[in-house]
Each structure stands twice: as C-alpha cells, then as structure tokens.
C-alpha cells in the first residue's frame, strides 16, 4: 500500500448497510489494513483515535448524523482525519461541499474496488505526512526554546536574509556579538546551514518580514 503507511494504520468505515460494511472490511483487510466499522457516525465520534495514520470511509447518508455532519464535527473538534465519502445518492452540490471541506475523494456506488483502495492509500499517506510534519515541528520547537532571547532575536532577523552587519545595526550590538549568537543558535538548533535555519524558522513562523 506504500512506504508511508505502516502496520499500525487504521481505516474506519461508517455505513448503516451491514453488507456494505462487511464488504469494505474484507476488501481493506485483504490488502493488510486494520479496519474498524461503525453503523452510525455518533459511534465513531465517541471513539478514542490511535497514535497512528488513519482515514475514514463514510457514507454520505446515514441515520442520525450524516457523513457531511460527521466531517463538520471532526473539523469543529480540530481532529484531522482524511475522509473518503461513498454514496448511492450523490449529486454535484454534495460533492463540491465535501471536497471544499477537505475530503480526499467522493465515490458513487457502485465503485471499483481499486478506486477505493487508491483513495484509502492516498488518505493514509496524507495523514502520515501531516503527522510527521507535526512531530518535526514539535521537535524544532523544543530546540528553539533552548535559545536565549537574544539568540531567538538573531534567528528571526538572519533568516530574512539580512547580513550580520545589518542584524547588528537592527539590534544595536556589535557584528561579533551577532556572529556569536548566530553560531550558538545554529548549534543548538542542529542546523547545518542557513537554509536549514530558514526552513526551521518557517516551520515555527518566527521569520520577521523585511522592511
């Protein structure tokens, strides 16, 4: 299913049609994926999600909360779960609404098994990439917090492209002082180059705009 997807990945399926639920579960398990099924969106929304790449395959029309309602509830709770909608009653307006809200795919029943598997692969890889990015950002944030206030100020300025002399003038210190702070900051941040430092600053949102 792809190198970005590990054995801990989980696909959640919500469909009130038991034959559809079982069919999807068997299909997804046939390619080595872990699957959990639900008859109602409310059952899924109360579920504690694992620390792994996940995605959701959900029917648009469900008793109680619809698939689109489920998507809205997840967004409201700031829970990032890539969603693949399936439906036997889809229309253009519904598709547009789902895709605008970030759905990975919208498949009309009956769909080809391979189309669903391709969509699930894409969704899991997307979720894995998002998780990796967040973990990297958290790691960089921890390194950044080891810097002194002066080192943080230097980083915010040098990553805009200013030369050491310009940073010194901006901060009212000597160029030597800037070089020392810059060197210490790069060592603490484990940045091998200025380009690395710029990427980290972008990740943290700390780069100052040049005047």
Any overview of this molecule?
This protein is α/β, with parallel strands linked by helices. It has 9 helices and 5 strands; from the N terminus they run βαβαβαβαβααααα. It has helices at 18-29, 41-45, 67-76, 92-100, 113-144, 149-158, 164-171, 175-189, 194-204, and strands at 10-14, 34-38, 54-59, 83-87, 105-108. Strands 2-1-3-4-5 form a 5-stranded parallel β-sheet, with helices on both faces. The mean pLDDT is 89.
Structural class: alpha/beta
Mean pLDDT: 89
Strand tally is: 5
Distance between the termini: 48 Å
**Strand residue content:** 5-15%
Main sheet, how many strands, which sense, barrel?
5 strands, parallel
Which spans have pLDDT < 50 for at least 5 consecutive residues? none
Range of helix content: 40-55%
> What does the overall shape look like?
elongated
How many helices does DSSP assign? 9
**Rg estimate, integer Å:** 24 Å
Order of helices and strands: EHEHEHEHEHHHHH
Strand order of the largest sheet: 2-1-3-4-5
Secondary structure elements and pairings:
Elements: E1 10-14, H1 18-29, E2 34-38, H2 41-45, E3 54-59, H3 67-76, E4 83-87, H4 92-100, E5 105-108, H5 113-144, H6 149-158, H7 164-171, H8 175-189, H9 194-204
Parallel strand pairs: 1-2, 1-3, 3-4, 4-5
Helix pairs in contact: 6-8, 7-8
């Amino acid at each position: 299913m792809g190198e970005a997807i590990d054995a801990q990945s989980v696909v959640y399926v919500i469909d009130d049609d038991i034959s559809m639920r079982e069919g999807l579960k068997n299909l997804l398990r046939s390619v080595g994926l872990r699957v959990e099924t639900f008859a109602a969106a409310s059952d899924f929304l109360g579920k504690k999600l694992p620390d792994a790449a996940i995605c959701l395959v959900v029917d648009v029309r469900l008793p109680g909360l619809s698939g689109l309602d489920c998507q809205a509830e997840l967004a409201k709770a700031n829970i990032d779960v890539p969603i693949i909608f399936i439906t036997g009653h889809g229309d253009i307006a519904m598709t547009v609404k789902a895709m605008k809200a970030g759905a990975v795919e919208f498949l009309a029943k009956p769909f080809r098994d391979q189309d669903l598997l391709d969509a699930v692969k894409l969704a899991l890889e997307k979720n894995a990439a998002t998780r990796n990015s967040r973990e990297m950002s958290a790691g960089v944030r921890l390194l950044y917090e080891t810097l002194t206030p002066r080192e943080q100020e230097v980083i915010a300025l040098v990553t805009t492209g200013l030369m050491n002399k310009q940073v010194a003038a901006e901060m009212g210190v000597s160029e030597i002082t800037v070089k020392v702070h810059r060197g210490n900051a790069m060592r603490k941040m484990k940045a091998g180059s200025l380009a690395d430092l710029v990427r980290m600053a972008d990740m943290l949102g700390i780069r100052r705009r040049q005047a």
